[in-house]
Prior knowledge:
This protein is mainly beta. It has one domain: Metal Binding Protein, Guanine Nucleotide Exchange Factor, Chain A (Beta Complex). Helices cover 0% and strands 41% of the residues. It is built from no helices and 15 strands. The strands form 5 sheets. Strands 4-3-11-12 form a 4-stranded antiparallel β-sheet, with no helix packed on it. Strands 7-8-9-10 form a 4-stranded antiparallel β-sheet, with no helix packed on it. The chain starts with 20 loop residues before the first strand and ends in a 12-residue tail after the last strand.
Amino acid sequence: MWKYRGNRRPEFAIEPKAGQESVWDYPRPPVLVSDHRKIEVFSKDKELIALATCSFRVLETASPPTFYIAPESLITKLTPYPGASYCEWKGQASYFSHGDTKIAWRYDAPSERFKQIDGWYSFYASLTRCFVDGEPVEAQHGDFYGGWITHEVVGPFKGDPGTMGW
Length: 166
């Protein structure tokens, strides 16, 4: 268990530098933030899957942001993938594949708070090659999580080794 230091950020959290955000300063419940940087998503074999200049980031305590892009930003058609999951904040997610690999998810008819991302896609950086304004994205650890780690966010992040109790 961590100790609070008078704010929300636990003592083990990395102190953000100028131009950085600590995921421990992100809210719970999560929020949507509009983002206008260039987003590129490639398959592992370097095929361009999506290109966007407008997206939404979901910011949630302890997790790197997940980026959602509009369906019209898809360059390549994705195929529905079996299975679903449920988020207490957004609702039911469905999954999508490129070839045989599950690479993305979306929320159809999400909760009122997340209506702006209804039908928008988010991609697993561990199963694709993602870029934010040309910067390669590092994937959040854990098979379930889909956060995108860039130079601007500091953790530690949910899903990192030793975080099972979070």
